[in-house]
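Lab notebook page, bench 4
Experiment: in silico fold of construct C2
Operator: M.H.
Input chain length: 106 residues
Purpose: comparison with the prior construct
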Amino acid sequence: KVAVTEYTQALKSPETQGQAALALGTILIVTGDRAEAKKLFTIATTKLPAGESRARAYASMGRMLEEANQEKEAHAWYQKALKDDPNNAWARQSLEPTPPPPAPAK
């Protein structure tokens, strides 16, 4: 609860708005407020400079969409994440093709 208050305050400052939006959005995903988390991730992607932090915001949006069974939209966000940070593990793993199931034994 203290963290939510701190991040909410940090949203008011242009210097900390992007990081605060990313952190608060992550907390709200855990608490189940996906609509507000989506707004915050959008803020984070527009306020953060290109790089690892913005890639995390893109990947977080992708993960949220993937969990809502919106695979196509999720993949677009994961691709944005990899543009900013080619080493973003979550985006890389999420875009890897799923191997086919093993053939049944004969």
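Observations: The chain has six helices and no strands. The radius of gyration is 16 Å.
Next step: discuss at group meeting.
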